[in-house]
Amino acid sequence: MKDNGATLWSSWIPRRERARIGLISDTHIPQVAEELSPHVGRAFKGVDLILHAGDVYVPSCLDWLERIAPVRAVEMGGAVHFGRDHRVAHKQVIEVQGYAIGLIHDLMLPGMLGEVRPGALQAAFPDSGSLQAALQWVFGARVDIVVFGHTHEALIEAYQGVLLVNPGSPTLPSPAGRPATVAILELTPAGPEARVIEVPRPPLFPQRRPIV
Question: Parallel, antiparallel, or unpaired: how do β-strands 155-159 and 162-166 relate?
Fold first, then answer.
């Protein structure tokens, strides 16, 4: 990998036939809290791999997660904070158990205005296969699963043969008042499955008063 702006291709072979992957995004450590809640570790107990979909901010957050399982992550402008950290790229395509997983922070699709939220895909890509063409433009390859973040809003949607998962945020869920979340992705011979898991938020730093 030349730098963190490139797509990083990696192949990861799980120890089991049924692979379990922890999904997390928008942690914003240490902007809002000192570290992640231990409940995240409990939710990810036994996973084979963890994918972080961006707004990581500091390598220590990935170090914390890596005590649980190997980590791959994306970060917009990641070279500023992560240098040549092998775990981080601007976007990644990761092959696990024959599935190609596209990992990106802000999923901006050609032909679509706004964020990927419930119902938006059907309105933007009514034709069969048109979503895959847009995703190939983003990742440079065909993908079976897309993991993304940025909105802080959890989403699981299967559309035109692609499973899209946004795990939400374990620290700053959106809309305000919603539960903090992570997600689990399971890959089996029968197909991929995902579920969202609610986690208590860590103690947040008090909001600083603006300087006047």
Answer: antiparallel
Q: How far is residue 20's CA from residue 46's CA, in Å, rounded to a whole number?
A: 8
Q: What is the pLDDT of residues 132-179, one digit of tens each?
A: 999 999 999 999 999 999 999 999 999 999 999 999 999 999 888 899
Residue 86 domain-assigned?
A: yes
Strand partners, 91: 7, 104
Residue 100 lies in a domain: yes
12 or 153: which leads in pLDDT: 153
The pair of three-digit structure tokens given for residue 122, joined into one six-digit string: 């059907």
Q: How far apart are CA 205 and CA 154, in angstroms?
A: 23
Residue 5 CB neighbours (<10 A):
13
User: CB-based contacts of 20: which residues, under 8 Å, 6+ apart?
Assistant: 46, 47, 48, 184, 185, 186
User: Is 2 inside a domain boundary?
Assistant: no
Which CATH number covers residue 49? 3.60.21.10
Instruction: Grade residue 83 by pLDDT with cuts at 50, 70 and 90.
Output: confident
For residue 86, CA distances in Å to 10, 78, 104, 144, 205 come to 11, 11, 16, 23, 30
Q: How far is CA 25 from CA 22, 35, 111, 113, 127, in A?
A: 10, 14, 25, 22, 30
Q: What average pLDDT does the segment 20-47 reach?
A: 95
**CA 61 to CA 191: how far, in whole Å?**
30
The structure's pTM equals 0.91
